[in-house]
Amino acid sequence: MWLPLMILLMLVTRIASPGPIFYRQERIGFGGRRFFIWKFRTMKLSAETQTHEQYFKELMRANCAMTKLDTHGDPRLAPFGRILRASGLDELPQIFNVLCGEMSLVGPR
Fold first, then answer.
1. Quick check: 49 and 69 in contact, CB under 8 A?
2. CB 85 within 8 A of CB 13
3. Which is more confident, 4 or 68?
4. Largest CA distance in the chain
5. Distances in whole angstroms, Cα of residue 91 to Cα of each of 38, 40, 61
6. Does position 71 have pLDDT exceeding 60, yes or no?
7. Span 49-65, mean pLDDT?
8. What are the φ and ψ backbone dihedral angles of 26, each rounded to 5 degrees?
9. What's the average model confidence in pLDDT over 21-40?
10. pLDDT in the model for residue 92
11. Which residues pair with 22 in a beta bridge?
């Protein structure tokens, strides 16, 4: 059921933004075991970190409720990336982490 959706999202990601389809990040799992999570790439390849750093500094100075940068029109997001993040579909490839026993569907995030 989720495989056709993943294939469609892979195609859309490839068409919307050149570069790799997936983003990989090392995480620490149960028992301190390291593994890589997989996500659909939602940011442009040329994404710089200054936008996020500036947003975080302003947020700390303002002493207000934290909101996701995505909701403020983050220019680093690739076309269609905002939709993937808002829907949570960018995390769909993590089903493979679950199938490999590296993650669980329930429990702490």
1. no
2. no
3. 4
4. 46
5. 7, 7, 31
6. no
7. 71
8. -75, 135
9. 92
10. 94
11. 40
Residues contacting residue 69 through CB under 8 Å, at least 6 positions apart: 51, 52, 55
Structure tokens at 87: 């829907």
Strand partners, 38: 24
* Amino acid making up residue 77: L
Residues 16-30 as b/e (b if ≥16 CB within 10 A, e otherwise) read: ebeeeeeeeeeeeee
Is there a contact between 21 and 80 (Cβ–Cβ < 8 Å)? no
**Tokens at 36, concatenated:** 């890589």
Three state DSSP letters for the chain: CHHHHHHHHHHHHHHHCCCCCEEEEEEECHHHCEEEEEEECCECCCCCCHHHHHHHHHHHHHCCCCCCHHHHCCCCECCCHHHHHHHCHHHHHHHHHHHCCCCCCCCCC
Provide the residue type at 7 as one letter.
I
Give the Cα separation of 8 and 70 in Å (integer): 23
Task: Return the SS3 of 77.
Answer: strand
Paired with 43 in beta bridges are: 77
Structure confidence by residue, pLDDT tens digits, 81-93: 888 988 999 999 9
